[in-house]
Amino acid sequence: MSNKVAIVTGSNKGIGFAIVKGLLNRYDGTVYLTSRNESNGKKAVAELNKLGLKPAYHQLDVADRESVKRFAEYLKKTHGGFDILINNAAIAAGSERQCNYEELKEIVDINYYSLLTIQELLFPLVRDNGRILNIASDCGHLSNLLNKHWIERLSKKDLTVEEVNEFVKWYLDGRKDGTFNLKDLREDGDVGSYRIAKMAVCALTFIQQKELAARNISVNCMHPGLVRTDMTYGAGFYSPDEAARTPLYLVLDAPDTLKGEYVWHDGQILDWYDYNADWWFKISTLND
């Protein structure tokens, strides 16, 4: 039995569940299905068991530091480390126009800040030659941003995590005190929290790649496409199983040279820094 280990966060349903299923069919190692709610996670495991698939399970709330810490300690004790990490856990609110500040902050907390906790507590356990994939979005492409100051800051080749955090804080502080200019984002700031969080995820990805390059660990981010899941309220042009193909390619089949990239749902590598591109998320696609 191989001692290789793969982990998918937020994987009791949707794309995460499909990725776990795909890994179980192809990966020679242990595959962890994780979920914030243990009951939902166990139901997902039972569903896979019916297909003859045997995932490992561990509760994981990516927004809860203690939960991430417990999982890290368990992985270290049980396996000594792991080889593949797919950061899939996320939430969205459809249109955010009716959300209050606390709801907007929760979107940022789960979609972005949780990755900082994961970087701190789980990244030390990634084995050399491992692969990390941050599931982002077309909301995460830099073309979603219209504020010239932050376009220039985020485009810096020596960008730091502290500067990415400043970018997120700029948005949250502005939403809290009512001073944020919605014209600084596409579509008058709708889905603004999700856009900001996913742009921050992409920027963080490129920093993480630089930090882990010496150990030949690849870190990429991707837009999985508009997938028919609960999070999109059933809108989309991909089923979860179809959407899992490119993530599976990136962690199982992609060449070692594919590192620090922003990848489209069809596997195409796009220039994340091209802020004039037409790759930003359009609300109208939810109604197509």
Report what the structure shows.
It is a single chain. The chain is built from nine helices and eight strands. The protein has helices spanning about 15-25, 40-50, 65-80, 100-120, 150-155, 160-175, 190-210, 240-245, 245-255; strands at about 5-10, 30-35, 55-60, 80-85, 125-135, 220, 260-265, 270. The chain has an eight-stranded mixed β-sheet with strand order 3-2-1-4-5-6-7-8, with helices on both faces. Strand 1, helix 1 (about 15-25) and strand 2 form a beta-alpha-beta unit. It is globular and about 50 Å long. The N and C termini lie far apart (about 45 Å).
Set down the secondary structure blueprint.
Layout: E1 5-8, H1 14-26, E2 30-35, H2 38-50, E3 56-59, H3 65-78, E4 82-87, H4 101-121, E5 126-135, H5 148-154, H6 161-177, H7 192-212, E6 218-222, H8 240-243, H9 245-253, E7 262-263, E8 269-270
Parallel strand pairs: 1-2, 1-4, 2-3, 4-5, 5-6, 6-7
Antiparallel strand pairs: 7-8
Helix pairs in contact: 3-4, 4-6, 4-7, 6-7
